[in-house]
């Protein structure tokens, strides 16, 4: 297991594991009392016996986590960059494309983290796909603040530099989160041509960088601004491009992308001089699994960003998740993949590996395919993502995607923070009901809560034709998220049912109010 702060020591340790043909297990180092539960789960699953770390972290771990049995049972090896061997001692490593390179533990947004087995062959194929699709060149320069413990930060942010030989400038994730302007200033300082981030990073820049701060930026060198790892919002992309076009950023620089750890990293992205593609779809039709462009009379419009096309040597199929048969192009289905970037499965989990990595099409027995668990469709050949199969909320036979509802909530009141709310369902009285949980800004006090609750209810009814059953307002920073910042809807639901969310206000729809709302809806329909 690798337990390092982001930086060159971590990079060196990771490469040392590859050189020694030892399976690396990247993990966030523990901070105070945080991350320990996840580290314990990874330790138990990976059965790691050795931990590489820095001297300072080792001292802190021994002092603060002496009661964590798993950590105390490890053999600890500490080193600094000054202890590295001379390059003349290099011996060609005994590895091949089938050799296991590292275990990429999934974020655990829907369950316990699982170790994805990534081989050297997987890495080489995916890096070459990124080279071709994202137009990498040896004289490029990349800036990365992404956590190096996850696929996007590790493979795109670090290994791409080694694969191509271009310069990469590393920022600690905290440096960006504390001061987002630092990211763009670093791009300007090094005349960087490439830098990637999830949608929230671009959104953070939009909302925190003032006009005065922006005026000093020159982003004309930024050729590829990849956006991925979480739902990509049209508004974020359009507003980011519009704002920073004044600083030389070109619209075609933004590259919406789709990927997942089980496919090493990148699955699809737009290419070359193509600007991001956005279409207005009929939201009600999407809820019924149909792909239909919005018309002038459409009441619920859903804007989706295209994520481009997969590699030519990888198969992407849209499959009915129930019948396991291919579906027409005008229907939403589960995304299935096959090809050289598909990893070997989950470490020591044969049943989960069989269910996820060894899927076969029912009528032709074609396979094996990776079941991504993501829902989407292809429109004019381009891939569009609608949501996660396990996260879909089904109310009265209509599918609702939680990220759509969450986006509606963010825009309904200024007290609600971007990326800090979750929508999920519970079963009550044999009916599926909608629950909203959201952090509320500290500047708003208890007297404002009633207006916030009313704004949420109205917005969800107007945009999605669904009555909210429960709304929970949370303290800032308490919404369950993964270590990479993704909303853990499964954990939100679990903590809601347990009553362990850190609430500042809770509202519930009473039976009479629900009955009246249903009658009003039926009258409108008649």
Q: SSE layout and pairings?
A:
Elements: E1 2-3, H1 8-20, E2 26-27, H2 36-46, E3 50-53, H3 55-64, H4 69-72, E4 75-78, E5 100-105, E6 115-119, H5 120-133, E7 141-144, H6 151-164, E8 167-170, H7 173-178, H8 181-189, H9 199-208, H10 211-214, E9 225-227, H11 234-244, E10 254-259, E11 266-269, E12 278-282, H12 283-287, E13 301-305, E14 309-310, E15 315-319, E16 333-338, H13 350-357, E17 370-379, E18 382-388, E19 393-395, E20 398-400, H14 402-410, E21 416-428, E22 431-440, H15 449-464, E23 468-474, H16 489-498, E24 503-508, H17 511-525
Parallel strand pairs: 1-2, 1-3, 3-4, 7-8, 9-10, 22-23
Antiparallel strand pairs: 5-6, 10-11, 11-14, 12-13, 15-16, 16-17, 17-18, 19-20, 21-22, 23-24
Helix pairs in contact: 5-6, 9-11
Question: How does this model look, in words?
Answer:
- The structure is a single chain.
- This protein is α/β, with parallel strands linked by helices.
- 32% of the residues lie in helices and 24% in strands.
- It is globular and about 70 Å long.
Share in helix: 25-40%
Radius of gyration, CA atoms, in whole angstroms: 24 Å
Which structural class do you get from the secondary structure elements? alpha/beta
Tell me the overall shape. Answer: globular
Low-confidence stretches: none
- The first-to-last residue Cα distance is 62 Å
């Amino acid at each position: 297991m690798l337990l390092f702060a982001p930086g060159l020591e971590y990079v060196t340790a990771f490469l040392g594991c590859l050189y020694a043909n030892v399976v690396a297990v990247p993990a966030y180092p523990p901070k105070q009392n945080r991350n320990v539960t996840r580290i314990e789960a990874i330790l138990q699953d990976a059965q790691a016996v050795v931990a590489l770390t820095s001297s300072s972290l080792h001292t802190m771990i021994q002092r603060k986590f002496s009661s964590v049995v798993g950590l105390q049972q490890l053999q600890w090896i500490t080193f600094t960059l000054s202890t590295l061997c001379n390059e003349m001692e290099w011996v060609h490593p005994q590895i091949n494309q089938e050799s296991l390179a590292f275990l990429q533990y999934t974020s655990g947004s829907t369950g316990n983290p699982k170790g994805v087995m990534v081989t050297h062959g997987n890495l080489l194929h995916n890096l070459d796909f990124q080279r071709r699709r994202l137009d990498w060149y040896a004289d490029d320069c990349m800036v990365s603040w992404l956590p190096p413990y996850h696929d996007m930060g590790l493979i795109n942010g670090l290994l791409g530099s080694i694969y191509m030989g271009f310069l990469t400038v590393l920022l600690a994730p905290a440096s960006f989160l504390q001061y987002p302007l630092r990211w763009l200033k670093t791009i300007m300082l090094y005349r960087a041509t490439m830098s990637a981030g999830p949608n929230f990073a671009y959104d953070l820049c939009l909302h925190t960088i003032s006009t005065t701060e922006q005026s000093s930026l020159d982003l004309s060198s930024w050729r590829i601004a990849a956006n991925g790892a979480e739902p990509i919002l049209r508004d974020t992309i359009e507003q980011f491009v519009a704002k920073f076009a004044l600083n030389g950023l070109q619209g075609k620089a933004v590259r919406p992308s789709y990927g997942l750890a089980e496919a090493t990293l990148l699955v699809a992205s737009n290419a070359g001089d193509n600007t991001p593609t956005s279409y207005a779809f009929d939201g009600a039709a999407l809820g019924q699994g149909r792909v239909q462009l919005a018309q002038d009379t459409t009441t619920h419009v859903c804007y989706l960003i295209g994520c481009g096309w997969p590699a030519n040597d990888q198969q992407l199929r849209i499959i009915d998740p129930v019948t396991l048969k291919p579906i027409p192009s005008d229907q939403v289905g589960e995304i299935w993949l096959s090809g050289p970037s598909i990893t070997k499965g989950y470490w020591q989990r044969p049943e989960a590996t069989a269910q996820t990595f060894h899927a076969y099409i029912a009528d032709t027995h074609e396979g094996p395919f990776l079941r991504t668990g993501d829902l989407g469709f292809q429109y004019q050949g381009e891939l569009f993502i609608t949501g996660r199969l396990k996260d879909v909320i089904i109310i009265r036979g209509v599918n609702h995607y939680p990220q759509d509802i969450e986006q509606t909530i963010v825009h309904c009141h200024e007290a609600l923070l971007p990326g800090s709310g979750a929508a999920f369902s519970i079963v009550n009285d044999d009916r599926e009901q909608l629950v909203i949980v959201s952090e509320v800004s500290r500047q708003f006090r208890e007297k404002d809560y009633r207006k916030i609750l009313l704004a949420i209810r109205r917005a969800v009814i107007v945009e999605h034709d669904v009555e909210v059953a429960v709304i929970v307002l949370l303290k800032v920073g308490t919404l369950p998220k993964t270590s990479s910042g993704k909303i853990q809807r499964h954990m939100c639901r679990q903590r809601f049912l347990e009553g362990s969310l850190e609430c500042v206000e809770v509202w519930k729809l009473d039976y009479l109010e629900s009955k009246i709302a249903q009658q009003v809806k039926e009258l409108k329909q008649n």
